[in-house]
Amino acid sequence: MVSEPLISATILFALIVLGEIISYLTKARVPMLLTAMVSYLLLTWAGVLPEKILDNAILPSLGAIVIGPVIMHMGTMMPLHILKSQWKAVVISVFGIIGSTTLILVFVTLMFDFRTAASGVGPIAGGIVALLITVEKLQDLGLANLIVLPAIVQALQGVIGMPLSAILMKRYSRYYLKNREHDKNVATISDKDKTKKENIFNKNPLLQNNVIRLFIMFFLASLAFIIGSVTGIHYTLLSLLFGVIGLKIGLFEEKEMQHNQSFTIMMVTIILIVIGSMGGIKPQDLWAYLPAILSILIIGTIGILIGGYVGAKLIGWRPTKALPVALTALYGFPGDFILCEEVSRSVTDDKDEREDVFNELLSPMIIGGFTTVTVASVILTSILMNFI
Fold this sequence. Notes:
MFS_trans_sf, transmembrane, Integral membrane protein, membrane, 19 helices, mainly alpha, HDC-like
């Protein structure tokens, strides 16, 4: 019965709902994604959930397809004038990676060896691409026994990063709500831009069709993938850029996927991919490499915090704003987006204030996540693994 796609998908969906409920009850102290991931892992270990439940559900396969369009949607949430001001988020992210890499290479090498340290640097600094580079290099060197280490680090790093980020983001959000200043001129400009975009859409009735608008996003995401395969630029970065440009020229509306009513189901499928990353972890693997894994996670996190704090002091950001941006290295997308939603929901009941907090948090978090997970970590891993 559980092998039926509908039932499998419903069970996995229930884990996400459980996470949402706990996040709401704890006011985002326990992030939804953390609850869903840990619940999936424990239920799989206990034999309650079959190991192939993700394959049966089919939805994760869809999740792999929609990442590009969803990230393009992120671009439609960040107007160009806001992105131009986010160079500070890039600085914070880079300082965080420098901090984690330095501490891991020094202390983990002293505690274990350089191979163990180098195997953990990529995953702790970034996402799945960095992990794949690490795994491929270890296989080439005949060090298949070490592959489980970066895989588990990759899967578990969000367990530390998300709760820590949520605490810091909530503190900053309260500070922001108390000290924010309303700039009427900016609001007026925003209203003019909105009117201009609405006029462009009114002149093109076909663009009001949700199916056509969704097709445009998939077409551009496919184009980003093709360009990325030729240039070496990760397609998610290009998808983000297409979203920003599309918003600027009026091809997309702000928060495009919410207009074509496709965002929720796409986010669910992507969340299932993230949950599935826990599926290959066995209790015996976790136990065998536990000392090295804990060392990499703890030392790496401390390094990110130190680097992010130094960066915050240099550029003049409050640490409670800067450190979550640096910590995006531990979870990236969609964790950064989900945390922004959960935190903005938890700090105020006023709808306008929620939107203000969400907008204040989103741009630096998304840019920080792309800097670490998609760009810097891949470059770092590609270089570092050559020294093993």
